[in-house]
């Protein structure tokens, strides 16, 4: 079917910049939304954590880019993916978006917006909420960024912080695809990690180290090791306290040097259980 959101000659989303090149639009959109994301964290949008609140956040983030910012999509939407051998993720039909979001947000209200929960249980609940909103995918574009601002504000109200800045794009994509298919493991682990200040510190340090070397960490799955889990891989680098290694699935992990036996030598094959 035809997509009314697209500019027919160029095949890219109609935008207020009048751009007809995808790369140029990506850059302009990123610059605009990044600025508004920063402003939004300084001046949050008051709301009831419902559909209208989500619309307001999306409208604020994308108002300089798209005429339809803050409006739910009117066409079916699916995205190609290749996680676990699956080829497509199909999102909620447009006529069911309002109904399914209302159900999710009513449940959120019934659970008192997760007030009073311990950190790990809060992280698990937020993972489920984020995954459900993503499964519905109410907007034509910009769902992830609006969703993250939505749950970030929810966390802030309860005294928790969601450190999405240490989450690589590739990791978030993988977690979102799997959770949309009903597998919550990766998303729950992600939220558990980024609500734990102690665990994100070495991750942030390693990201700074990689950026100084010109390494595009956003294109890789990047996470800290999980206590009690056994890993095998190839050691890449260390900073004196932590070490970086990759496994046979090309995922990058940050571990604690005390978990290794022997010197941390680049290219060395390692096997250990994380403490």
Secondary structure blueprint with pairings:
Elements: H1 22-42, H2 51-62, E1 78-80, E2 88-90, H3 97-110, H4 119-136, H5 143-157, H6 169-180, H7 185-194, H8 197-212, E3 222-224, E4 230-238, E5 242-246, E6 252-256, E7 269-273
The fraction of residues assigned to DSSP E strands is 5-15%
CATH topology of the largest domain: Fic-like fold
CATH C-level label of the largest domain:
Mainly Alpha
Question: Count the helices. How many?
Answer: 8
Mean pLDDT: 94
Strand pairing plus helix content: what structural class?
A: alpha+beta
CATH homologous superfamily annotation of the largest domain:
Fido-like domain
What is the count of structural domains?
2
Q: What is the end-to-end distance?
A: 53 Å
Largest sheet: 5 strands, mixed
The CATH level-2 architecture of the largest domain is identified as Orthogonal Bundle
According to DSSP, the number of beta strands is: 7
Helix content: 40-55%
**What is the 3D shape?**
globular
Strand order of the largest sheet: 3-6-5-4-7
């Amino acid at each position: 079917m035809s997509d009314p959101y697209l500019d027919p000659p160029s095949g890219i989303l109609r935008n207020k910049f009048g751009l007809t090149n995808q790369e140029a639009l990506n850059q302009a959109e990123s610059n605009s939304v990044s600025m508004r994301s920063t402003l939004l964290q300084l001046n949050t949008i008051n709301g009831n954590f419902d559909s209208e609140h989500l619309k307001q956040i999306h409208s604020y983030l994308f108002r300089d880019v798209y005429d339809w910012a803050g409006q739910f999509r009117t066409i079916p939407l699916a995205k190609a993916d290749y996680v676990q051998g699956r080829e497509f993720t199909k999102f909620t039909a447009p006529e069911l978006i309002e109904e399914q979001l209302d159900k999710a947000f009513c449940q959120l209200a019934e659970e008192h917006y997760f007030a009073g929960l311990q950190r790990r249980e809060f992280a698990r609940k937020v993972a489920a909420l984020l995954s459900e909103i993503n499964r519905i995918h109410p907007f034509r574009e910009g769902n992830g960024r609006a969703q993250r601002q939505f749950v970030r504000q929810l966390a802030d109200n309860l005294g928790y912080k969601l450190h999405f800045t240490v989450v690589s794009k590739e990791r978030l994509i993988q977690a979102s695809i799997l959770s949309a298919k009903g597998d919550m493991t990766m998303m729950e682990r992600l939220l558990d990690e980024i609500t734990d200040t102690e665990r994100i510190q070495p991750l942030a340090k390693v990201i700074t180290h990689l950026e100084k070397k010109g390494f595009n960490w956003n294109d890789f799955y990047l996470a800290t090791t999980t206590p009690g889990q056994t890993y095998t891989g190839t050691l890449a680098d260390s900073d004196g306290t932590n070490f970086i290694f990759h496994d046979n699935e090309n995922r990058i992990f940050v571990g604690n040097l005390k978990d290794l036996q022997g010197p941390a030598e680049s290219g060395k094959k390692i096997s250990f259980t994380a403490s």
